[in-house]
Design brief:
With about 400 residues, the protein is of the alpha/beta class. It contains 17 helices and 15 strands. It is globular and about 60 Å long.
């Protein structure tokens, strides 16, 4: 199958959606499919052979963050050229409601279109304001996917229609087989995320740290991600700052090694999350997880059975739970075991197969569609497809 995938956010700036698209593309390539990804990127940026640049992105406030998007006449021309050259059997666009390549592709593409919605935002002013523009484009979509029930709810409330829920995927074995790093072991807490983005929650963790260190002064916090390290520790007493180690941006291999090494992974995100891929990666690596009780995080952690939850933005609750877990190796071992079993449902062997099933559904003839209905009851209804 010839598969075209559209990434809305700049390939130069790593993020959950980009990682999802990268891993999805490489999964399909390993299966023997022909895959091309169109993404915003500086023209001089080294790209994987399957990625085509749609030109430089610009920063735009979007969903409580700053997204690097690509939109305009030049981008539209590159979209048309990519579609013409690709001759795709199916085109899979991500975040079609964002003002970026996905929306341009909706306007330009002919043939089967699949869309994945990642955003969870119950009060999206951007979606409400752009409804009339989006509706005409989104009518061309053959099937809709949401990465979580909360992303599906955002879609239904703002744009109508429905979607099948297929979560983000992860290569579980890649994380499970990573080698721990000795210098990252020994009473360590891990955090991975953009330091300069408040909704990733590092300020909440920093506020909790003095109480954690008062109970366990030997504990270290390891922080991986881009941003200003000095600014991040400004509110921390000077005598405690040596207990925080900033690792900067880390490779995929070092991210897996970090997650394999820490005694506890903390996800203090404050909102705007529709899924929580870092939780899946942490469970895959065998790290006990402590996360804010966001709806999306609770779903990923099986409502607290595969990882513990604390009250969102409550630094005292975070500190209390972290100290308790650090002092209870038996509980941490229990979380590792439960997480390692639970996380298998997010492996690409399952997630990729479900997405491929959607592709086959929208490209198949009437007989194949009927067979798919028999094998996966209700799929066509959840995708919002009409019968022939």
């Amino acid at each position: 199958m010839r598969i075209g995938i559209v990434c809305p956010y700049s390939w130069d700036v790593p993020g959950g959606v980009q990682f999802h698209i990268r891993d999805l593309a490489e999964y399909f390539i390993r299966l023997g499919h022909e895959v091309s990804v169109l993404a915003p990127a500086d023209d001089d940026t080294p790209l994987p052979p399957y990625v085509v640049s749609a030109g430089r992105a610009v920063p735009v406030p979007y969903n409580g963050s700053v997204a690097r998007l690509n939109f305009g006449f030049l981008s539209a021309a590159r979209v048309r050229r990519w579609l013409h050259d690709g001759k795709f059997d199916v085109v899979h666009i991500h975040e079609p409601s964002s003002p970026s390549l996905g929306l341009l592709t909706c306007w330009a593409a002919q043939g089967p279109l699949v869309a994945t919605f990642h955003t969870s935002n119950p009060r999206s002013k951007a979606m409400i304001a752009a409804y009339s523009i989006l509706q005409a484009a989104l009518e061309k979509i053959s099937a809709r996917i949401a990465v979580s029930e909360y992303a599906r709810r955002t879609l239904v409330e703002h744009l109508g229609g429905d979607a099948v829920v297929i979560p983000n995927g992860v290569d579980v074995d890649f994380f499970a087989k990573a080698e721990p790093k000795a210098e990252w072991q020994g009473d360590t807490i891990g955090f991975i995320g953009r330091i300069d983005e408040p909704r990733k929650g590092l300020p909440v963790l920093m506020k909790a740290l003095p109480r954690i260190l008062a109970a366990r002064p030997q504990t270290r916090l390891l922080v991986a991600g881009r941003g200003d390290a000095e600014e991040a520790v400004e509110g921390l007493p000077e005598e405690l700052r040596s207990r925080v180690e900033f690792l900067g941006m880390v490779s995929d291999e070092d991210k897996a090694r970090l997650l394999r090494s820490v005694d506890l992974y903390v996800a203090p995100n404050t909102g705007g999350e529709s899924f929580g891929i870092i939780l899946v990666e942490a469970m895959s690596a065998g790290a006990p997880v402590l996360a804010a009780d966001l709806d999306a995080f609770a779903q990923v952690l099986d409502q607290g059975a595969a990882g513990e939850l604390f009250a969102n933005e409550d630094a005292d609750a975070l500190a209390e739970a972290a100290v308790r877990l650090l002092e209870d190796p038996r509980r941490r071992a229990e979380l590792r075991e439960r997480g390692s079993v639970h996380v298998r449902r997010f492996d690409w062997s399952t997630v990729g197969a479900d997405i491929l099933s959607v592709y086959e559904t929208v490209t198949a003839g009437a007989a194949a569609v009927a067979a798919a209905d028999d094998e996966r009851p209700g799929l066509r209804a959840r995708l919002g497809l009409a019968r022939d």
